[in-house]
Fold each of these.
Amino acid sequence: MNNWVAAPLLIPLFTAVILIFLHNKLMLQRWISLFSTLLNTAVAIGLLLRVHEDGIQTLNMSGWKPPYGIVLVADMFAVLLVLTASVVSACCLAYSFRGIDEQRERHYFYSLVHFMLAGVNGSFLTGDLFNLFVCFELMLMSSYALIVLGGTKRQFRETLHYILINVLSSTLFVASIAYLYGATGTLNMAHLSLRIAELGQSGPITAVAALLLVVFSVKAGLFLFFWLPGSYGAPPAAVSALFGALLTKVGMYALIRTFTLIFYHEAVVTHTLIGIMAVATIVLGGFGAVSQTNVNRILGYNVIASIGLISLALAVSNEHALTGAVFYLVHDMIAKALLFLLAGVLVAETGTERINRMGGVLLHSPLLAWMFLIASLSVVGLPPLSGFPGKLLIIQGSLESGSYIIAAAGVLLTLLLLYSLIKIFILGFWGDARKERNPEWKQPRKLLASSAPLMLIIVLLGLFAEPVLPYIQQASGALSDPSVYIQAVFKE
Amino acid sequence: MPKGNDIFLQNVSKVVVFIILAFALYLFFTGHGSPGGGFIAGLMTAGALLLLALSFDIETVRKVVPVDYKLLTAAGLLIALCTGTGALFFGEPFLKHAFGYFDLPLLGKTELHTALIFDLGVYLAVIGVTMTILLTIGEDN
């Protein structure tokens, strides 16, 4: 029993509730929010070191033993993602001090962000399938409010799509949980894994697995992503960054967790399906990114394509590929948040989202330009930056398994993303300004300063990949051997 | 909605509201061991307030119950969270509850449990959320 496991869930919840009382005191709200996310980061680092030394930490909530009560499980994979989410959210919050207007701040913006973080951290840490659904809903409810907050016409239109698609997939989620409970009589993930290993993964259970695959794919933007580029572009940059960095990754986390821990017996059916969806996602997402001229939509398609890459690793599911997937997931959360934040500055600077109406930014804001270039290159996976080790491991893993199509898709993705991001750079930053500039525009130093830590992490994570690798390998080791997770849950 | 002029509805609801509120109170206290609890009691209470709003109007409800429902929600959440977290200070797992038997005047030997405080939080949060939703929709026209 370790009560600290609940802390990443409790800190945002308390903050969110306290901020409701303070919704008119802007400065106080800002500082409490930032302090809370920094505190969460510190707690996550503490948990990370503890898990690294003593193995997986669990907490039986209310003191009920595992198959009966709800258990929180902090394994290395979950803790790494909690840590990354805390760092990313701290930077996005610091960005929103300047990047979000007062009207939104007064209307519970910070509260909603913290409720969403509680949902995100809860989804990472829970060891119970129904509790996962509850945390998903907490996260989604707050994201509904965040995406519509401000109430512009475009936000209303996109929110409608977003809510409809998510309500539909949540319904399917509950239905598949009910089927699974009917078939196995448990919802504890470790217990589910044991039961299904005993019973054998029969046809009906594989069908439920496929249903869950559809549900998580909608949330993650794997193949079923038609709603994503529009919805993520509608709210202000700080919110887009949070969505792009966290929400789809929670879906991806759920996919990796369920298909490595529970449904790993019929890999020929489920993992082949994941592989086909991943390749399709890369092709469609990559060409989508290339074909767009709107900055936010290009980034939206970039989010989708990266999800495709991580799913490739899940389809292969050998040790190298999973290590690569964990590394790339951590990198992608940081890099996507950074790209969305910088795109927010870019749009504010040029007054348009269309790259063919921008131009000349390199002359006026060289700092923004170079930060954007480095972020783009790291997404593409250029060697000294953090995108490279993950991508290399994923492609290496797929070559080891003889999945040449998957490896080829990974390389194709790199080229397409490179083209789409460099297109932003060439059209947006080079040349002369195509549009009258706002004469009152000042250098957004504070906005850039708040995204600088993310930038720094990208560079450091790439340069010092070697010292980080043991943590990543501990995470992927537990993923490729479900018995580690199961024993940790049932040890008490 | 026409400004309250339905005498029958208004007079009946004046009485019925108190019956509903009393039943909500009963549900709230019976909830630990048998069907009931903070959630359903909160819905009942919100139902009573809604009946008032239907038979009179929203302004009357605001005057009779001058509460900011958003803050009520927050207060409820805070109470529930604090009850769950309280267990941490006794070295128990999160959300663990305690109970004991006490001799109270009038009631005699009574079981008191911390789950009731948690339920109070749920009760307030449910009233707050339901009324916020209803009043927001009601204000639109």
Amino acid sequence: MFRRSLFRSSPPRFTYQRLQDVSHRVLPVASRMVMFCDHPLTRRDRLRIQVGDAVRTGQKIVPFTDSDACVLAPGTGTIQGIDAFEGNFGSRWTRIDLAVASEDVWDTALAQALDSVDRQTLNAWMGQLPGALPVGALRSPRRAIETLVIAATETDLGTVTAQYVLRHRSRYLARGIDLLRAVSGARRTLLAVNRDTVQGLGHLHAEPVAVADHYPSAAPALMVQQILGRTVPVDSTLERLGICIVPVEAAAALGQSLGEKRPCLDKTLTVTAKDGRQTLVTVRVGTPVGFICQTLGIELGDGDRLIAGGPMAGTALYTLDYPVLPDTHSLMVQDASQVVRVGDDPCINCGECIRICPAQVPVNMLVRFLEAGQYAEAADLYDLMACVDCGLCSYVCTARIPIFQYIRLAKHELALSAAAEAEDV
Amino acid sequence: MSDAKFIVSHAPYVHDGSSIAARHYQVLLALVPAAAAGVLQWGQPALAVICLAVGSAIAWELGFTRLARQRPSIGNGSAALIGMTLAMLLPATVPWWLVVTGTFLAVIIGKQIFGGIGANPFNPVVVAMAILGLSWPRLMDFDAMLLAYDPGFAMIEPLTAVKAFGAATAEQFGCLDLFFGRQAGAIGAPFGIWLVLGGLYLTVCGVVRWQIPAAFIAGVFVTATAFHMADPARYAGAGFHLLTGYTLIGAFFLATEDSSSPVNFWAMLIYGFVGGLMTVLIRNIGAYPEGVIYAVMIINVINPLVDKIRPRALGKVT
């Protein structure tokens, strides 16, 4: 699928995968679960939890006394370990291991919170629901939300998760959309779908709008341009324009939580094995990816690559303990023989990246600045911030430069220095 | 299973399989028909020049990377391509030392001292040809160098003839003859048919960006036609200019060198057109009968400037 033929006078076009012939399995609850809490663990931190504590399914755990970062317990059992975990770009998390002991005993503390939800009671834990609800944007007191976009589009190639949720969980989705409309106060609610699925969505109280089916049309900036005809200026954000994008699975999970009066913990993801065979699986958030591979019979060996997310923008994992997170929409396994190494040649100015870039970023010039670490100049002169993070430039790069990684690193560094400046002032 | 060591790297995890080496070998392949035609027409000396040029270019690059303690880069085919392209532009009977000097100028002066592949502001082959032409004009003079040949057609270099004796001389060269390489000239450059086929192959493969050769040829055509209409007695027509000298190899192989050419749509059209325009200007009103080498150098210079003509990026206001 991904190698191109010799004759290629036009840039390649990838279309998002269709939900066809992909079987679905509900996997059992794993005996070990891992929760990732978005807060660094340091020696000075005082914790509300300790190893040996018993937790119940769906319990909201707030590990730190000085932070409201929280996780939802994916099973009933005891806490086995609390460790620091370092992710991409130095992001630091707290990892909480859970030994699942018995049948589910559901915690009822959140049932009350689900009785009536409004903007004030939108709580951080709802961001832990499968699909990752953008709670911060929905609650933001600074900006009113004018347009709510429920994104039933895929986030990467090789995944059909959003389409599955749209088709098979529409009852809960309808309820979730109604709630989000009320909570956000949005004047318009749109349902962004792929072109051929616009039909049959009348029962959802959202206006279906079609997004082109070639990658990366569903990237937020490009999607907004297509469905609203508005361009997001590089120095602005969707939030400032009054646009809030909610993944379809988050809306469905919210609806389900409301309906069942307990938090929905089931995440659906598309798993692609080494041979390209795909399975949709539904597991609890927090299930280690190793458990999924084992259950599906995917053998893993030295030199293989395990990717949370899709082939264009996912995250390569080094451990099978890594859990399914609320925003893990797919899991992909590559055999060692499929792994293409990056090169260390300089840019030869062939222009492939220029022709494929959906945001018209002058990648050939940009990469020269990024290699030299001149991030501010890259943003000022060569449109770094216009990048929509699709990864296509790296895919076509003749010199096999990790352009996309350079871009991510630059954006990360600029965000860090902007944050540092804001602190100084 | 749990103690397997995975490869951790960054997105994306797929690649289209292209590489610098494959790209250069494709260009080399596209030059092979013209080179073969050259060997058939000019015989064993042509073969010797091609082999020496390719070999010495590789040797210069290997020597340089050794000396500079860099990773050997000859595997990417760039040096071999430089040698091959240079050979295509030389007369078949040049002395061996001129070939070796030429590849030194191209590989070391034209490319490596700027930082190697991708960093050269000029096409290395064009740099070498410009210096060789200025330093040893008699050895680069096709009429003098090809005296020993009698292949059965007029052995007078067409551009020099027109420059010296006026446009009427052009009529003795049939367009088809010129297109099939039946003219005095370099080893590979006269064989328009094979150069065009090779260039089209590269265009279809996406190695050559079609805008550059198309605009270059259009530039030659428009300018030559304008001159011809202004003074038909002095200036030859567009067909003659397109099929003689280095025009076709310049359009498809010299102007399109990656590092020294633009990548944006309008920039490529301007770059190519100016190349064609300058070629005819130099030929018709300049001091030299052939203008492609200097024309390509000039457009290499304007490349960074014209490549600023680019579409506005997403979300960029004003």
